[in-house]
Amino acid sequence: MNRNRWHMTFRPLRWGLFGLLLLALGCQDEGLLPPEPTGGTLFARYVAIGNSITAGYQSGGINATLQQQAYPVLLARAMGTPFNLPLLRDPGCPPPLVNILTGERLGGLPGDFCAYRQVPPPRIINNVAVPGAKVIDVLTNLGEGTSANTLTLLLLGGRTQLEAAAEAHPTFVSVWIGNNDVLGAAIAGNTALITPVNTFQQRYTQMLNELQAMGVQGGLLIGVANVTVIPHFSPGIAYAQAEQAGAFPPTFDVADNCATTGATALVPFSYAFGELLAAAMQGQAVTLDCVNDPRMLSPDETDTIVQTVQQYNAFIQQQADQMGWAYLDPNVKLLELKNQGQIPIFPDVNSSEPFGPYFSLDGVHPSAAAHRLVAQEAAAAINAVYGTNLQVQ
Amino acid sequence: MRIVTGAVLPRLRKRLLVGLCSLLLSLPALGQGFSLNPPGTCTLGRGGTGVAQPCADGSAVALNPAGLALINRLAVSSGATLYLSRGSFTDDYTEQETRLKEQPVLVPHLFAATQAAPDLTVGFGAYMPYGLELQWPRTFEGSFVSYRTRMQTTYLQPTLAYRLSDRVMVGAGPVLAVSTVALWQQLDLSQQEALPGVPFAALGIPVGTSFANVKMESDEAYGLGGHVGMLIQVTEQFRIGLRYLSAIKLNYSGTIRFSPLSTGIIIPATVELSGQTIPAGTPLDVVLASLGAYDRLTDQEAETELTMPAQFAAGFSWQATPELTLLFDYQWTGWSAFNKFTIETEGGGSIERIQDYRNTHTLRTGLLFQASPILEVRLGYTYAQGAAPSKTVTPLLPDANRNLIMLGTGWRLGRGVVLDLAYQYVRQDDRRGRVVDPAPGTEPTPALNSGLYQIGAHVASVTVSVSL
After folding, report:
1. What distances in angstroms separate CA B435 from CA B98, B393, B428, B432, one per listed residue?
2. Quick check: A116 and B367 CB within 8 A?
């Protein structure tokens, strides 16, 4: 066969082949991919790391209702991104307090009651925060200094926060961790329990390194709260004034030093009410001593805690700046509320909001209103760094 | 059902059968559902067409039994087809892609036919119209539905073809189907019961915590069916063909085997469970053992049933010029027979997978060009409609519509020896699917779909046929 004959006879084949290729390859599959988050691809997968505040713990308990009031849920809503929670069954684990004097909890259940998780659970969890967590708990569950608890198992199934976060392949994270590195010391009146600043920095750095290794594209770091400002702590003078006003039973004595040398010592509510007053109500004579009782937080100890928080936060802000992440100092708003009188010096036990509108019934954890504030402040901090337009309603 | 057919087969004949079937290895699904390409290299190169004009290599046994009547001498063909499929699942949310394990598979085929009398031709074919093998990594999120599926069904078909007149030919043959099926999956601890009425998920065990591997493997199952066809030579250049392959029901019996797997979970804090104090740092596996969770994983006998769907095909061939022939086939496949997949265990339990496949239509076109007296060039295109509805696109079989293009040649080497070569590119439409089963007692829905399956394949085939 000569060259021309080959050419003539193969021409229809060439066109046929071309047509078949168009048929086979030209088809475009549309509508197969999920919609992008309304806030932008940066927020495609948002994971929140933290402690009880981030988990949604309020009034000494946690349940699905409270989990859904937490600030990361509100932020995720503003981002328009899916946000799965490890929801707990009602009434909670433990159920939240409904009366701070009697210690009554939702459903009349005891403080060690746990209603387990809702099923079926989500495959991916976006809020990996665990109540009680310190910085070390984000990294590991076992070992010295860790504070893993039943909720670590219930919420994360035994994984660390970082392990659970990695499964979501986060594009954006918020981290609010470190409060418990000082809170335990404040409540116990023992500054030896504070996580040393260099240890804190080392663990925090490791956490950020591991997050960056996950391919996280952006984030928000929230500084440690100045725990001495929260309404769980009242100055000794407030107790002295309350006694004068007849707020306590005769078996509850407030030492004179609470009005003098111990006037500025901070008294933890959980100690004064939860232990001393509870014993007094049972008929036992007790005395609140604002100077000699080691459970009090002396002015020096308070200074130590405040300075530690400042050092923590200087480091956290520095890390955020280095990574180009957003940073939020919660203490600006906290002090503003305190100065506005929104955070009471002494709990009004006859009120439905004994610790004011921004704190729940344990005086430590923010209320739903405070979570909304945090979410709004967090959105503003994110918008300022990333040029986004997150709006928390 | 125990293998009744096996009882009536003489032992030696059964061994031969099994040996022959073992030549036909497993392969990925490349047609719709778990159907495969029409067999033979010559047929593959022309887009799978041939109902009106089967290849002369004896593969008419599978394409149209009546086509054997066109063979007027002894024809034997043997060859192999190499399948290399590739695919992936991309999770909507994490955007993580999990790839199918790529493993080339070689599948031999065998056909023979001879003219027994002036108008009568006899033939035999061993071919695999239905088969499937898919393997995902064990770490795949869909591994709790299935991480490996294998189904091999070989049809052994003796055939008679008769020329009724110069223009009409008919053919028919019984079909013995020999089949095995196997399914591998993992058990998700989160769905198992920890305490009465309390699944492990309620205790926080994450979804997708594997704690046992399950292998369900059948013995060989046998079924009988039939295949009939007709060819009508309308004009010297134009011929039409019809064929019908009956559905074949197969009853499988086999074994479900469990292998415990370590969860890798360490209890992070001291907890109370069912009156027991479990100290922090205890491996969850120890807790499972104390709860007797592994004791429930005893091997079991099981039975299941599958129906290989019926096929009806019609086509024509038109010899446009002495060198150029055009072919067109239409095929209907009765996939609605695959509505569910139920495994009955000896303990009286059952595992049911709703499939709800729909009957499908396939269009095939082919072009034959006789480039020289010794060289035929072939071209083909097939559009195969997917059988699975949107709710049952799973790791078990991520089915979708497919476009296939083929190229092939037949090279006459001399002395009745022909070498056939073919290549096929398979482009399956991307399709959304799921990686989880619906909750027990509920129907699957497309709302469970959580990602995109993308499947494609390259297929190459070679056959040597001899006509004496």
Report:
1. 12, 9, 19, 10
2. no
Chain B interface includes A1 (CB < 8 A): yes
User: Among A20, A30, A113, which would you mutate to test the B interface (most chain B Cβ atoms within 10 Å of its Cβ)?
Assistant: A20
Q: Residues A44-72: what's their mean pLDDT?
A: 98
pTM: 0.88
- Write out pLDDT tens, residues A269-296: 999 999 999 999 999 999 999 999 999 9
pLDDT at A4: 56
User: Domains, chain A, ranges and CATH?
Assistant: 41-231+299-386 (3.40.50.1110), 234-288 (no CATH)
- Separation CA B458–CA A284 (nearest Å): 86
Closest approach of B213 to chain A, Cα-based (Å) = 20
Searching chain A, which residue's CA lies closest to the CA of residue B407?
A: A17
Contacts of residue A319, defined as CB under 8 A and 6 or more positions apart, other chains included, come to A204, A205, A208, A221, A325
Per CB-CB distance under 8 Å, the chain A contacts of B403 are: 23-24, 27
What are B2-42's pLDDT values in tens digits? Answer: 222 233 333 434 443 433 333 333 344 455 688 888 889 99
Q: How far is Cα A302 from Cα A299, in angstroms, rounded to an integer?
A: 5
CB contact under 8 Å between A117 and B204, yes or no, is yes
Which residues in chain B are closer than 8 Å to A13, comparing Cβ atoms?
Answer: 367, 369, 377, 379
Q: Name the H helices within B99-138.
A: none
All residues of chain A having their beta carbon less than 8 Å from the beta carbon of residue B207 are: 120-123
The count of residues in chain B is 468
pLDDT tens, residue by residue, B190-212: 999 888 889 999 999 999 999 99
A35 part of contact set with chain B, CB < 8 Å: no
Do the beta carbons of residue B108 and residue B80 sit within 8 Å?
Answer: yes
**Domains of chain B listed by start with CATH number:** 4-467 (2.40.160.60)
CA distance B366 to chain A (A): 10
Interface pTM (ipTM) of the complex?
A: 0.87
